[in-house]
Task: inverse folding
């Protein structure tokens, strides 16, 4: 069972995952999110970045935006997998214990964090 996003952290990142066939849709989704919710939309990476297993775009938002943004993202994601995690200052925990998903969960490349 996949953890559903809960509004329990002050700040969040959503990582929208896509591939070449969904690049246009994902780019549009991120642009719409920025306009509609005044969230901070990062670069649309057409390469692997950090622990992320697919091309991705990061959207930063806070607790006050959560209740309107997450349902919109769920409704409009069109089968894209989206990682949601709290931003606590502990990168390893933020990408392991503080995660939830919209759509299909994907395995993160945790060796990026140099976990022993």
Result:
């Amino acid at each position: 069972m996949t953890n559903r996003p809960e509004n329990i952290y002050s700040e969040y990142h959503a990582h929208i995952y896509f591939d070449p066939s969904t690049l246009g849709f994902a780019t549009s989704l991120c642009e719409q999110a920025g306009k509609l919710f005044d969230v901070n939309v990062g670069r649309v990476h057409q390469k692997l970045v950090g622990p992320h297993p697919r091309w991705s775009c990061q959207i930063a938002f806070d607790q006050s935006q959560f209740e309107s943004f997450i349902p919109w993202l769920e409704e409009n994601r069109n089968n894209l997998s989206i990682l949601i995690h709290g931003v606590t200052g502990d990168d390893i925990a933020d990408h392991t214990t503080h995660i939830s998903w919209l759509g299909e969960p994907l395995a993160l490349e945790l060796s990026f964090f140099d976990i022993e």
The longest strand covers residues 11-18.
